[in-house]
Design goal:
- This protein is an all-alpha fold and 274 residues long.
- The protein folds into two domains: 2-36; 56-271, Orthogonal Bundle (MetI-like fold).
- 76% of the residues lie in helices and 2% in strands.
- It has 13 helices and two strands, in the order H-E-E-H-H-H-H-H-H-H-H-H-H-H-H.
- The chain has a two-stranded antiparallel sheet with strand order 1-2.
- A hairpin with a 2-residue loop joins strand 1 (42-44) and strand 2.
- The chain starts with a helix and ends with a helix.
Length: 274
């Protein structure tokens, strides 16, 4: 009986702890959504009661909020596609072939991802202005590639390394070419890793605020940078309602992509030794 009571107490404490953790993560999201659908609150019998207000969501479909959402979608989707197109064959080459300084180059990719973005900000700003790509999609995407390609190569290479070389040899012995080996056999086997790489490539470009603030001004400023600008207008009054609606919008694509690739992400972390 004592052991049963002890187990029951431990289970209750686990449930309380998990509920507390969930509350910590859910409360900011709930508060953001609550503010996004609220106008100026009215006071009734000493209690503050917010009125339902859809104008904040309508507001972010106009002006600089709209351009920020469009810019974020264009930049994030482009970064994800470019990173995958470059990283998949590069990761396969790093794992299956040996060439001069391959290990050093592979490690250098990781050091680029470990470096703080602020280290690259001043050189990028000066070079991008000189090249005429400051405040453009091309400049922002190029800056993101320096950070996204290394991490996607590491993710994909880790998974490809778990695929036995005997599969490649058997496919080539059966008369298939290198192209057929890659597209018909390797790509289907690394779908979980591609799902993980897609998620991280999208996430970095979609949520970045630093580079989007330094390397853009008007034409290609993304939604996180727009939020930083809006919340920085302390002297002119902060637009809490539209900012909360825009902030909640930033959660939607990531959650949708996470739900879409959730099976691949689990397999990638389980079998890819990530």
């Amino acid at each position: 009986m004592a052991a049963a009571r002890k187990d029951l107490l431990v289970n209750i404490l686990k449930v309380i702890f998990l509920a507390f953790i969930c509350l910590i993560f859910i409360l900011p999201v709930y508060f953001t959504f609550s503010v996004s659908i609220s106008s100026k609150p009215r006071i009734n019998a000493g209690a503050i009661i917010p009125d339902f207000y859809a104008g904040n969501w309508i507001e972010i479909t106009k002006g600089y909020w709209k351009s920020g959402i469009i810019n974020s979608a264009i930049v994030s989707l482009s970064c994800m596609i470019i990173a995958l197109v470059i990283s998949i064959p590069a990761a396969y080459a790093f794992v299956r072939y040996r060439f001069m300084a391959d290990k050093h180059l592979f490690f250098w990719f990781l050091t680029n991802r470990m470096a703080p973005p602020v280290v690259f900000s001043i050189p990028y700003l000066m070079i991008w202005r000189g090249m005429g790509i400051w405040d453009t999609y091309q400049g922002l995407i190029l800056a993101y590639m320096v950070f996204e390609i290394p991490i996607t190569i590491w993710i994909l290479a880790s998974f490809i390394a778990s695929i036995p070389r005997e599969i490649d040899e058997a496919v080539l012995i059966d008369g298939y070419g290198t192209r057929d080996l890659f597209f018909k056999f390797i790509l289907p086997l690394i779908k979980p890793a591609i799902g993980v790489a897609m998620f991280f490539a999208w996430l970095f470009a979609w949520t970045d605020m630093f580079f989007a603030s330094v390397l853009t001004s008007v034409h290609s400023k993304t939604l996180p940078a727009q939020l930083l600008t809006a919340l920085g207008k302390v002297g002119w009054g902060i637009e809490y309602g539209p900012a909360a609606a825009a902030g909640f919008v930033t959660l939607i694509p990531g959650l949708a992509l996470l739900y879409w690739v959730r099976r691949y992400i689990v397999k990638g972390f389980t079998f890819g030794r990530l």
